[in-house]
Amino acid sequence: MTRWPGLRRVFRLGRAADVEREVEEELQLHLDLAAADLVARGLAPSDARREAERRFGDVASARRRLVAIGRDRTRMERRADWWGALRQDLGYAARGLRLRPGFALAVVLTLGLGIGANATMFGIVDRLLLRPPAYLAHPERVNRVWFIRNFDGKPFPNVNTSYRRYLDVRKMTASFDVVAVFLDPSLAVGSGAAAQEEHVLGVSASYWRLFDMRPELGRFFTEDEDREPTGTTVAVLGYDYWRTRYGARRDVLGSALRVGERDYTVIGVAPPGFMGTAMGAAALILPITATVAETGTPPQRLRTYSWQWPQVFVRRREGVSVAAATADLTLMYERSYAQQVAENPHSLPLALARPRAVAAPVLRDRGPGGSDESKVAVWLVGVAAIVLIIACANVGNLLLARAFGRRREIAVRLALGISRTRLLVQLLTESVLLAALGGAAGLLVAQWGGGILRTALLPDVDWASVISDPRVLAFGAVVALAAGLLAGLAPALHAGRSDVAPALRAGVREGTYYRSRLRAALLVAQGALSVVLLVGAGLFVKSFNKVRAVRLGFDANRLLWVSPVMRGVELPPGDSVALRDRLAARALTVPGVTRSARGITVPFYTQWNFNIVVPGLDTAYLNHLGTMQLQAVSAGYFETMGTRVLRGRPLLEADRAGAAPVVVVSQELARALWKTADPIGRCLKIGADTAPCRTVVGVTEGIKMQDFRDSEDPGLSYYLPLAQWRPGFGGVFVRTRGEAGALADPVRRALQQEMPGAAYVTVRPLADIVGENMQQWDLGATMFTVFGVLALVVAAVGLYSVTAYGVAQRTHELGVRVALGAERRDLVRLVLGEGLRLSAAALGLGLAAALVAGRYVAPLLFQTSPRDPLVLGAVAALLFLTSVAASALPALRASRVDPNRALRDE
Question: What is the pLDDT of residues 287-317, one digit of tens each?
Fold first, then answer.
């Protein structure tokens, strides 16, 4: 390099073509100078040229080497210049923010709330709808099978099916290289005082082939260990359970662990993060045949179509499309259902059921029967995005105000020679720095506040920490960058277009109208979007209140459900009945308990469905009515539940075994079966026409058993005396004076004393069970309200800032108005009027958008019209009051303008 000092300037060029050209010119100049020197020494020009080239050496090789060096040096210098400029811009932005900490704090908090809301909702939707299960091999080829049948002319998708159907999928299809079955019950794990219910996965041995992983310790179970009827008692520990229960001991293999009624041998530990296809980490993974045995299901039920708990997963062979797999599954289901009808003639006929199966995405909530909570969550993603847009608009307003205040500074810098592009980059760097700080604040919001929200509203999902989740962190970073650019682009472009001369002349009022119009447009957008969110909040709150006001037919808030778990303790039938009777009697000794009664099924938790036969009514008509819920209860059940007996009598102690068979029906079932005729004394048979005739002795109000909607749960129920129907089954309902939750633990402790051996009781408030089925409206009401109020506050702050800044800019104008005779109330009316006009425009746009969006959100509401006039009116009134409050302080400030001071200042 020292041989050709002129080449140094080559490496400061910016383009590769320039480097090559300059290298060529420098080489040519060097050869020309060397040849000229040789000519001066007496050589002929041609000989001098050849001698110069000989002395230089390989010109082509030198050219390539110098071009490569030049390009490397150019890239290094350009990179150094870029980093230097970035450091300079970041330092300048940081110094500016330190001088205005209040401004910086307002922007960071505003963006933090918007980014935190989006990170929270992304974490929820990613877990429910986007992220494939950990370790899943070939997730694009794995499907969850949904089975769809028609009921009452409408398709009913069900992800649960029978183990027998799983065997049919294995035998009757050819599109899959893996067919697996999955079950996730809660089972008692441990012995003695350490025993407690844990989340357990029961899977077929083929289930492991869906995943690409190795156990942390030991091995997984095999096909030979997963055979009917009761499987082999081997267990794989979940990673977290292994660490918490066993302290991550490496010698855990071969140890015994009590699960349900049997002792299991630990053969392996699952890898960290493995949850299978469930939403939460399991304590244990067992062979499904063994799991079924621990649920109390008779082994012979595995070979029937009536036991429907498991879920089926398949992996398509390479080259098999989803459509082809669905067609294969549908053909299988038709053949399988035909076998079911042949074995059980009371099943809905094939022509009416129209069975079909779907190879759906592996994530349950993306299937045809996805939960309403996931649908609400998708809406809430849009709501969170609206909150972010509102935050960006508000920050843009603040940055516009700051840019206008700095117009003279910017004009001076432009006059001194800074390019407008360089100025634009510097202003955008400041916006991105603010957004980065807002992103950090947003992730903290998502970590703490979002974690509380996710756990409260979707408690069954195993949520990862936001800080440790790379997907959420990456999403937060992208959102922060986008927010910074979105919020800062308009102010930066606006400042970069400033005219130098007018700004240097310090005309304070020049350009004000244009800037105010831009800020007003942003403010109207904020207000309109806030109206949309507030309307959504009002609709979901009204829906939630209507759901809570539904007459369920029982007093959920004052009821506990007590369920005995026998843990392998074998009792003769008579002793099993006596134990449950003792539990009901012992509950009455607990202070605060007023009544108790036994029952088999629990509303919104467990249901039993048996076909009924009514003399004179066609079976097809009975099937058309819908699902009829059976409940077997002891005397005092209706009084304990708070269910009203409308006609006849309730079930009594006299309705014991051997007495005349009787039944009580709900008024909805009585009306469906006998129209307006008196149901008392009518005959109803359970299961088959050969069953004994049960006499209807009473009619009760309907009980909601599985849904709040009348269309989905019309209240078709009938009640049998427990002594005449499975008397050794079921648990105990306990009625309390006040809120039942406060007595759950005292009742549990008292009743546990009656349990023999390792058996124990679980106690749950019925309000908690019912509340789990309100989650979609609770989620919508809570999140829409939180986001709506947040958006309204941000919009109100934006309106206040615009109005206050406008008053400050118009001090001279207001002083002139007062000097010319304007009254103070005229100034108040002027400022308030401008704020209210902006709010009116926002309200009109917002209500129009809410009405358009209403038809899409209508299916998620409960007995509430998306055009509810009370909700729309309440939102309009709220926005009006907020606008008045936000404009009042600047209006009062305008009324106090001193004309003399204002004119002197100008």
Answer: 999 988 887 677 777 788 877 789 999 999 9
406 is written with which tokens? Answer: 């700095």
Task: Tell me which residue of 695, 905, 888, 900 sits closest to 818, measured CA to CA.
Answer: 900
Burial of 102 (0-12, 13-18, 19+ CB in 10 A): exposed
Contact 846, 532 (CB under 8 A): yes
For 642, phi and psi rounded to 5 degrees? 80, 25
- First-to-last C-alpha distance (Å) of the chain: 64
Averaged pLDDT, 773-788? 79
CA atoms of 813 and 831, how far apart (whole Å): 12
**How much is the pLDDT for 718?**
93
More confident residue, 133 or 110: 133
Nearest residue to 803 (alpha-carbon basis) of 494, 386, 397: 397
Residue 807 in tokens = 């008053």
Nearest to 227 by CA among 313, 315, 163: 163
Classified as helix, coil or strand, 499 is coil
Instruction: Report whether 534 contacts 871 (CB < 8 A).
Output: no
Q: Show the DSSP H helices in 173-287 as ranges.
A: 239-246
Q: How far apart are CA 256 and CA 318, in angstroms?
A: 41
CA 78 to chain centre: 45
User: Residue 508: phi, psi to the nearest 5?
Assistant: -60, -35
The 3-state DSSP class for residue 753 equals coil
Helix (H, G, I), strand (E, B) or coil at 502: helix
pLDDT band at 507 (very low <50, low <70, confident <90, very high): very low
pLDDT at residue 678 in the model: 92
Q: Please give, one letter per residue, the 3-state secondary structure of 805-833.
A: HHHHHCHHHHHHHHHCCCCHHHHHHHHHH
Question: Pairing state of beta strands 284-287 and 196-203?
Answer: parallel
Cα–Cα dist 792/394, whole Å: 11
User: d(Cα 32, Cα 313) in Å, to the nearest integer?
Assistant: 79
Give the per-residue pLDDT at 515.
Answer: 46
Q: Say if CB 360 and CB 366 are below 8 A apart.
A: yes
Query: Which residues are CB-neighbours of 650 under 8 A, at least 6 positions away?
Result: 635, 637, 638, 639, 664, 698, 700
Closest among 670, 685, 853 to 346, alpha carbons compared:
685
Give the separation between CA 843 and CA 848, rounded to whole angstroms: 8
- By CB neighbour count within 10 A (0-12 exposed, 13-18 middle, 19+ buried), where does 317 fall? middle
Rg of the chain on CA atoms, in Å: 38
**β-bridge partners, 718:** 630, 665
Q: Please, where are the H alpha helices in 100-125?
A: 101-125
Using one digit for the tens of pLDDT, what is the confidence trace for 795-825? 777 677 666 666 666 666 666 676 666 776 7
CA–CA dist 458, 127 (Å, integer): 11
CA separation for the pair 504, 410 (Å, rounded): 9
**Cα–Cα distance list, 359 to 119, 307, 314, 367 (Å):** 31, 22, 8, 9
Distance between CA atoms of 74 and 25, rounded to whole angstroms?
Answer: 18
Number of helical H runs and strand E runs in the chain:
26, 25
Facing residues of 629 across strands? 609, 717
Tell me the C-alpha distance between 188 and 200, whole Å. 9
Q: d(Cα 21, Cα 703) in Å, to the nearest integer?
A: 89
Q: Give every CB contact of residue 79 below 8 A, 6+ residues apart in sequence.
A: none
* Structure token pair of residue 96: 């500016």
| Nearest one of 693, 580, 579 to 633, comparing CA atoms | 580
Element (H, E) at 780: helix 775-809
Burial class (CB in 10 A: 0-12, 13-18, 19+), 480: buried
What DSSP assignment string belongs to 637-689? HHHHHTPPEEEE----TT--TTSPPEEEEEHHHHHHHHTTS--TT-EEEESST
**Residue 796, beta-bridge partner list:** none
Contact yes or no for 259/188 (Cβ under 8 A): yes
